[in-house]
Amino acid sequence: MTLASYDPRVLKSNAPVPGAPDNWKRFFSFNTDAKVIGIQYITVAIFFLLIGGLLAMIMRGELITPENDLVDRTVYNGLYTMHGTIMLFMFIFPVLNGLNNLLIPTMIGAPDMAFPRLNAVAFWLVPIFGVILISSFLLPGGPANSGWWSYPPVSTQNPLGNLVSGEGMWLTAVALSGVSSIMGAVNFVTTIIRMRAPGMTFFRMPIFIWTAWAAQSLQLIGLPALTGGAIMLLFDLVVGTSFFQPEGGGDPVLYQHFFWFYSHPAVYVIILPVFGIFSELFSAHSRKPLFGYAFVALASFAIVFLGLIVWVHHFFPSGVPEWMRNLFMVTTMLISVPTGVKVFAWLATIWGGKLRLNTPMLFSLGGLFNFVFAGVTGIMLATVPIDIHVNNTYFVVGHFHYVIYGAAVMGIYAAIYHWFPKFTGRMYYEGLGKLHFFLTFIGTNLNFFPMHPLGLMGMPRRVSSYDPEFTFWNVVASLGSFLLGVSIIPFLINMISSWVRGPQAPQNPWNAIGLEWLLPSPPPAENFEENVPTVISGPYGYGTGKPLVENQSAYENQSLLEA
Amino acid sequence: MNSSSTRINYSALALVSTWTGVLVVFSFWMSRQAYHWLPVQASTAAPLVDGLFSFETALATFVFFGVISVMAWVVIFNRAEKYDMSDAEPIEGNTRLEIIWTVIPALIVFGIAFYSVRVNQKLAVLGPMEHIHRGDPIEEVGGFLGDRLPAEQVEVTARQWSWQFNYPAAKVSSTELHLPVDKPVTFRLVSEDVIHGFYVPAFRLKQDIIPGRAINLNLTPTREGRYRLRDSMYSGTWFSTNQADVVVESEAEYNSWLLQAASQPLQPGLSDAVAEYKQRQAEGARGWPTVVPAPAPMVNVPGSNQLPHNG
Ligand SMILES: [Cu+2]
């Protein structure tokens, strides 16, 4: 690979150019280019995915037998707490922010984010609170061990009485993560509102932009509650206040309101951008316009609105009056309406299309499969009488992992494969990608399906030992988790080897429609620089022959330079 | 979808209706199966919950397999030929269809919600919805079974990590819960430390026990047998071992159990956590420091949690 084969604009940029001298150093610096920050986020997130996954596999090792025989119970409790915390705060939010950084500016034709320095600060907080979180394993008292909900009073029991405890470090990390996410949200929302290319009206924005906007608005509304709750709990723990301590007149259930007021919407912060990814990919890889674009776009904000008024469904058995149970049951069920609008729109999009079953499309289809399963069990969970039975059992764990791993993570994999050529300038290996897909799809279902029968039978979540009648499904789940562990290997090999020595990617390998595909691969630091295109039509004109921007061929011709 | 709307494609119509029929039959079969996925029904609440679950299993099966059928069809029949780089026919939407698939799910959701609210109300009449007392002594609890049957009173104390059951009328205490079949019972749930969950899967009922409050829970067992009571709210190191057995028996057996229990001297009740903690200290702890388990409660009857149970 010689430098001469790159677009000259790429070379003068400080963007990561594979093979260009010293390009790797940019990833270890306080770089303000959103594309560098995006890759930083994704790389750090995948590192923590490996750690969180390793913790999960140790847990599944413990649960492959009914007795508590692999790790001490205190260790198990630390493992499950840190698994959830790492996966949510260190993997899934950062990886989505990585995609936001890569896609928002390029999809709307902005040179960068609205506040590039704030963007870099938000990113660099991630390794900081990551180190805080991980180093709590080294404390004499061990890490936090009261679950990722950290409900008081069990979370403020501090057997050693030390000022610096695992729980204290956990709360500090969560509060910092909240600060980082708020910084990110301010930036993403401002960028979307203020920095769109000329002609890109709201109803010409790609659905990914709509969903990112919706998700980041939820962050702005919900995060202050979580961060406030975490800080109050930290005071209870360290200073001895009693916001949530019954002895001091506090109310432990109040914390549950603070926590879930944010943490239910957090699930939509995660899944909304994945809906965006599905919308992009189903239409690009079946060569058809997205069916019912306006409905799909507006459904995102319907989900935001409803998502803010459902949080009590997480603690129906927790001393909640009946009118509240009925009210929150109905709001929760109503979310299935805008969600259904999206699912039906995707089905109508692929219907009669010309499908290309490449890795991104396979991951999207697999993700949709899992999401629909999670959707129907979600309706069951919303139903108060059923929820009373299965709340805090493995049924909830199964449902949640179908949403997060089955749908969101598979959607994120789809996005990583789909946009990998654009942002690295290299093609990945299709065979390894498909292998990754099949292992992930089978592993996910093997791991998480058995949790549903277990929950219906009455197996509580978070146990380190269980009655023997639960053994069979637990063995299946554990085998599934080990398969999921294996599934990550072809992914890592593919990503690393493709980035180092994969074939050079063309400007638009999928023949997809979107401003990002009018940029060279990888795009220069300032994206379109002075030549920002003027958008003249909606985003998914597959088969219509309508150009997306004025003078489109001038942008497309850049691919000739590379080829 | 792209054929002209005036001509009806009869073979497609036949295919779709046949397949819909197959799915309906399959969904109905699944709704029957759903009962077998749940533990035995041992309270008046259980059939109501299970009926709702069975109904939603039918709907869930139909929706899930309906969607999967469409996906499977598309994946099998709508794949592009190997070197076909062309686009598909550009259909951008259909407002009528979009309104239909917004309105129909909304109607179904309201249907489910209506059914569930009714079950909620029935359950409330049976008495599982709690009454919360903060500080003040326990008071009269709302009617159950529509009348004023005198309910058995049982005080439940949850600790890290044991369950204690007091029968104030008979002056009996136990770490095994005995209940007479077909008689309403009122529990007064109290926690001495953290939040615990009172959960008997065979009863389909669950209530969090919040420290600083006394919470009433009413239920009526309907089937004799031995069932598990599990702590359902994570409560610390020995959370998993915080289980007790619930023995539902005939009124005669129950009364003789109470009588016999009253004559027994107080002795340490069951606490697996105390036993494990002792062993852990003797062997040298492998893990991190832990909250020390509360001593086993002193009760008339320890009972057992090692016998085979029905659910
Ligand atoms: Cu929720």
From TrEMBL, chain A:
PROSITE patterns reported for this sequence: COX1, COX1_CUB
Gene Ontology terms: cellular component: membrane
Give the membrane topology, semicolon-separated if more than one: Multi-pass membrane protein
Q: Where in the cell is it found?
A: Membrane
InterPro entries given in the database record: Cyt_c_oxase-like_su1_dom, Cyt_c_oxase-like_su1_sf, Cyt_C_Oxase_1, Cyt_c_Oxase_su1_BS
Kindly list the biological process annotations in GO that this record carries: aerobic respiration; electron transport coupled proton transport; respiratory electron transport chain
Q: Which domain of life is it from?
A: Bacteria
Spell out the Pfam families in the cross-references. Answer: COX1
- The record places domain Cytochrome oxidase subunit I profile at 24-536
Q: Which residues form a coiled coil?
A: none
Where do the TM regions start and end? 36-59, 79-99, 120-139, 169-195, 207-239, 259-278, 290-316, 328-350, 362-382, 402-420, 432-450, 470-493
Family assignment?
Belongs to the heme-copper respiratory oxidase family.
What does the UniProt record say this protein does? Answer: Cytochrome c oxidase is the component of the respiratory chain that catalyzes the reduction of oxygen to water. Subunits 1-3 form the functional core of the enzyme complex. CO I is the catalytic subunit of the enzyme. Electrons originating in cytochrome c are transferred via the copper A center of subunit 2 and heme A of subunit 1 to the bimetallic center formed by heme A3 and copper B.
* Name the record gives this protein: Cytochrome c oxidase subunit I
Organism in which the protein naturally occurs: Synechococcus lacustris str. Tous
TrEMBL record, chain B:
Task: Name all Cytochrome oxidase subunit II transmembrane region profile domain ranges.
Answer: 32-127
Q: Which UniProt keywords apply?
A: Copper, Electron transport, Membrane, Metal-binding, Respiratory chain, Translocase, Transmembrane, Transmembrane helix, Transport
The record ties this protein, via Gene3D superfamilies, to: 1.10.287.90, Cupredoxins - blue copper proteins
Q: How is the cofactor bound?
A: Binds a copper A center.
- Secretion signal span: none
The family database entries (InterPro entries) matched by this protein are listed as: CcO_II (IPR045187), CcO_II-like_C (IPR002429), Cupredoxin (IPR008972), Cyt_c_oxidase_su2_TM_dom (IPR011759), Cyt_c_oxidase_su2_TM_sf (IPR036257)
Cofactor dependence:
Cu cation
Kindly list the residue ranges recorded as spanning the membrane: 12-30, 58-78, 99-117
Q: Which GO terms describe its biological process?
A: ATP synthesis coupled electron transport
Residue intervals of the Cytochrome oxidase subunit II copper A binding domain: 149-260
Q: Which reactions are catalysed by this chain?
A: 4 Fe(II)-[cytochrome c] + O2 + 8 H(+)(in) = 4 Fe(III)-[cytochrome c] + 2 H2O + 4 H(+)(out)
| One function term, GO molecular function aspect | copper ion binding
Keyword Electron transport attached: yes
Fetch the Pfam families from UniProt. COX2 (PF00116), COX2_TM (PF02790)
Tell me which SUPFAM superfamilies the record gives: Cupredoxins, Cytochrome c oxidase subunit II-like, transmembrane region
Q: Supply the EC number(s).
A: 7.1.1.9
Q: Where is the protein situated, by its record's location annotation?
A: Cell membrane; Membrane
Q: How does this chain sit within the bilayer? A: Multi-pass membrane protein
**Where does it sit, as one GO cellular component term?**
plasma membrane
**Which PANTHER family does this one have?**
CYTOCHROME C OXIDASE SUBUNIT 2, CYTOCHROME C OXIDASE, SUBUNIT II
Q: Which family does it belong to?
A: Belongs to the cytochrome c oxidase subunit 2 family.
Job description of the protein: Subunits I and II form the functional core of the enzyme complex. Electrons originating in cytochrome c are transferred via heme a and Cu(A) to the binuclear center formed by heme a3 and Cu(B).
Protein name, entry field: Cytochrome c oxidase subunit 2
Q: What organism does this protein naturally occur in? A: Synechococcus lacustris str. Tous
Q: What is the lineage of its organism?
A: Bacteria, Bacillati, Cyanobacteriota, Cyanophyceae, Synechococcales
